[in-house]
Amino acid sequence: GPILKKYYNELFNFSDLSLNNYLDLKHIFKNETKTIYRDKCCRFNDLGINILSDEISNYLKNNFNPKEVKN
Question: Which of 38, 40, 57, 71 is packed most tightly, with the most Cβ within 10 A?
Fold first, then answer.
């Protein structure tokens, strides 16, 4: 709603953080026209979960080398 539009960028502004790796997904559904929520609150349906998991998986594949991970 209007409140989120007004304050969202201020609440979640990561530009001042010095992080080596991060994945900003706050606009992931911006152009999605299909329903991604299963209820009126915040639980994703299968499409929403698939979109999120695909983005996270692609990010991990493109940014981390499994051989570099230490146990």
Answer: 38
Residue 35, classed as helix, strand or coil, is coil
Q: How far out from the chain centre does Cα 57 lie?
A: 11
pLDDT reported for residue 19: 66
DSSP code for 43: -
Amino acid sitting at position 67: K
Query: Cα torsion for 5, 42, 14, 65, to the nearest 10°?
Result: -140
CA separation for the pair 38, 44 (Å, rounded): 5
**For residues 23 and 61, is the Cβ–Cβ distance under 8 A?**
no
Question: What is the value of pTM for the model shown?
Answer: 0.66
